[in-house]
Amino acid sequence: MTKRLLFVVRALPYKTEASRLALTHAIASQSVEIYLADGDLVEASIAFIGDGVLNCHKNQQAMKQYGITPIEGHLKNSLLLDMKVLICKEDLDNYGLTEADLLMDADDIGGEVKAQIVPYSEIMKEMESVDHLLFC
Amino acid sequence: MTKRLLFVVRALPYKTEASRLALTHAIASQSVEIYLADGDLVEASIAFIGDGVLNCHKNQQAMKQYGITPIEGHLKNSLLLDMKVLICKEDLDNYGLTEADLLMDADDIGGEVKAQIVPYSEIMKEMESVDHLLFC
Amino acid sequence: MGKLTIGCFSSLVGSLSLDFAVKLSEAAVKKGHKVDFWLSGNATMLSKAGQKAFKDYSHLEKTVKELLTTGNFQITACEACAEARGYHKEDTLEGCKRHSMDWYLASTFDADRVLHMGGD
Amino acid sequence: MGKLTIGCFSSLVGSLSLDFAVKLSEAAVKKGHKVDFWLSGNATMLSKAGQKAFKDYSHLEKTVKELLTTGNFQITACEACAEARGYHKEDTLEGCKRHSMDWYLASTFDADRVLHMGGD
Amino acid sequence: MKLGIIMSDFRTGSDIIDRLSTEKPGVILVGNGVYHATTKEGGKSSPLLDKPLTFYALTEDLESRGYTAENLDARVKAVTYDDVVDQIFSDYEKIIWI
Amino acid sequence: MKLGIIMSDFRTGSDIIDRLSTEKPGVILVGNGVYHATTKEGGKSSPLLDKPLTFYALTEDLESRGYTAENLDARVKAVTYDDVVDQIFSDYEKIIWI
Q: 3-class SS at B72?
């Protein structure tokens, strides 16, 4: 059996650890089998809405400036691990941001999955369909 | 010489420690002489503005419910120690709060000073006249 | 009777969010439910042993210890979050476990409800 | 050359507010100013020795230690705030002092500027 | 889905509630969220309460802030931790904390 | 008084700036405050920038969030930690953090 979780990120980056921890915990779903019976799984996906979409901005120089991994780095790891990443189109439009402004893939480290810019209605459907919602 | 500080509390109570720490630090001005030369003093006063005025609501049952000193308790201590406590009238009016809703004195523990409900312009004058401003 | 998994993340000591989570656990366990409690981010502060009880600060150790004796309550802190804050294994509150983040994810597998307190 | 007193209160480890205060101190000391740095509330987390450096987390210990060697930088943690979080004297970062809150107030006496980071 | 929203703040979070287009969600006001139920600004109660939702406020958090169930807006019902546990398991399929 | 305001947030704090009726204050945007200088909503820049103040944004915090000085609204000047130190001691009599 597979249980499905959706992490919904509304928080801005850096001011708190919220968005970073959402990503690192979502990624941890990949190693959950050691605790579960054979065939059981927990599958996590991630949606960015509202101010949360600003976490996806590319070229974050947090390592250069503060010596810490940028949120973008965790996002890239989640794509490398084939996780579903949804970014709300209406919120991007509100900020005037397009795909060109965002970290959309992990191509340079061998990832195959891309982040998906989707209408909010798609994210709402995902919220309906998963077993548990994890907001921040 | 006396240096004057004004703690300006805009934060709501409890969600963070901000207003509690503003009060406890202001109160600590009373024992500052041990660090200073004879005759030198640091004098702190406290102003509540915006959402911060809600810290002054009376009958806070935080001890009964959570085992922690209510913000009101620190406020009472500051009045007992004759500190100047200013509460913004316009902000109280906005919330429909009056003196009857607030912790205004420390009479029951022998205090002589009362909190003062003053127009914002008075608080602004206090901000102008002190040496340093300490916001939260 | 059900199982509730609570994840408390960046909640400040000094806010009452951690207190909320502990009191909610207490009420749930009293009604016969099971509670798994995950501490991550700044909430790992709750897992630090030797916190002195001051009346100005929440002191949740006693309630947590009582909950642990019921057998229907588990509490686990994120190991990396704790180490990053200088809390080592020997500093951990008695009865509080330390694991990597997948413990939390695994706990949600058979949880009836998940309360994720992911912000402040 | 002047003196800057910085009070950092509830700033989260994991936010970059503490990092801001430390970097500002560094820039000020480099320019020949003196800095007194007061840690209270959750900011006392910075005074905890033995924090493991992970790339996901700020690690300010190195900069603080370098600043201490200049002789123009003092850092002091609120003793009660530290004890309430289970940080005892022997857990304190080398060179970081512990005092009661009046230390901070006294430091403002001859400060040219005070930067009070009283919230998050 | 039946959604239970635990709302812990006064100044943030109302925006997302509008976007959660589910069956009439329940909103449990806790922490500084209780000010939505006790506090008027300029004589007006919180716009949050005008939304078509079912509202509850945690008694323990009301009292910590100097209020009682009597101070509550008529659209909000006082609940205890015990009630919140029952709601979590019986009234909602998913719970979020904002 | 000459007041320097260090503004560290995007969603809170603008209200108090209106109330600080001092000589033209300087506002240094740091942390998530830098979004005021880089981010438009619905095509409009932050209303904060319409206030009669002098604005600066901390380069280190811009870059951490994926922006550069080129992304700044024309009313905002990029500064470094070094500049902020000089401003604190030379341009303002009092400093607040909001």
A: helix
